[in-house]
Amino acid sequence: RSQLHDPFNAQHTLLELLDKEQSENIVPDSDSFTLVIKAWTNHESNCAKTEAGLGLSNAAHWLNELIKREDAAIPHSTTSQEVYKSVLRAARQSRSNSRDVLNTARRVFAQCQSSRHHLDNHCYVLLLETG
């Protein structure tokens, strides 16, 4: 298994890229963020119940960071409908009983709704199955 599929390593690598962004003119792109988001959503889908919620929370955080970069028109920083859906899917699959899971899913759904991406039936189904 690749170290970048480990969400902690993937996140560490992205943080290193972000640190070098100003000094070395290395700009993390959408793929960098998407890799970290998907590593965290995969963690959420496969983790022990005691860790449930951590992957979703981190995936939502990095999606928010990517949205901010897209809004700021930072080159090569764009969201996709699939990245929103991956976070919604992780919320649906979460083993956490916390209300935070539903709140996160609602927030991500609203972000997708207000983005340039169109909501499709699958987005609605994922949200409904979360609650």
Please characterize this protein's 3D structure:
The structure is a single chain. The protein is mainly alpha-helical. Helices cover 70% and strands 0% of the residues. The chain has helices at residues 7-24, 30-46, 54-71, 81-93, 99-114, 121-130. The longest helix has 18 residues, at 7-24. The radius of gyration is 15 Å and the shape is globular.
Give structural attributes.
mainly alpha; 131 residues; single chain
How does the overall form come out from the CA principal axes?
Answer: globular
- How many helices does DSSP assign? 6
Percentage of residues in strands: under 5%
The run of helices and strands is HHHHHH
Structural class: mainly alpha
> How many strand elements?
0
Q: What is the terminal separation in angstroms?
A: 33 Å
Gyration radius, to the nearest Å?
15 Å
Question: What's a quick, concise take on this entry?
Answer:
The chain contains 6 helices and no strands. By secondary structure, it is mainly alpha-helical.
Detail the topology: elements first, then pairings.
Layout (H helix, E strand, L loop, with lengths): L6 H18 L5 H17 L7 H18 L9 H13 L5 H16 L6 H10 L1
